[in-house]
Design goal:
Layout: H1 7-18, H2 23-29, H3 34-47
Helix pairs in contact: 1-3, 2-3
């Protein structure tokens, strides 16, 4: 299994969501897969944070 992506990348993703981007658009901006964006968006919505 690969290591989790850096917390700084997750924080930038969360900032993009707070600015109004969708999970897919934020993932594309950070060159992540749409599936990763969906997982992170769901985690942020449920826990309020994007920690690994």
């Amino acid at each position: 299994m690969s290591a989790p992506l850096p917390s700084a990348l997750r924080a930038r993703f969360q900032r993009y969501l707070e600015e109004g981007l969708s999970g897919r658009a934020a993932a594309a901006r950070l060159k992540l897969s749409p599936a990763t964006g969906a997982r992170w968006r769901h985690q942020i919505q449920t826990t309020g944070r994007a920690d690994p």
